[in-house]
Amino acid sequence: MNPVHAFTIDAGHPAFAGHFPGHPIAPGVLLLQHVADALRAVAGERMTGVPEAKFIQPLLPGESASVTLAGGEGRWKFTVARGSDVLVRGSVTGSAA
What we know:
alpha+beta; five-stranded antiparallel beta sheet; 21% helix
């Protein structure tokens, strides 16, 4: 799997204020939004479900990460990583956008 979508969540993003005060980490929903963005860009599919997602390590404000996808035809495995550190891995479903 090759990275298909690189991103950084700006430290000023409003989600960090409440997740978690004093020790901010990127909410899982923001990471999954980047998986959905990658799926749309790579396959032209809209994410319709997340059958599995394992959150392994946090993404901190201002850190860069990338999404990789493998699969096709509505069934995809994904990984979100910061360099060689896996942050999230799982599977998503998609349909034509």
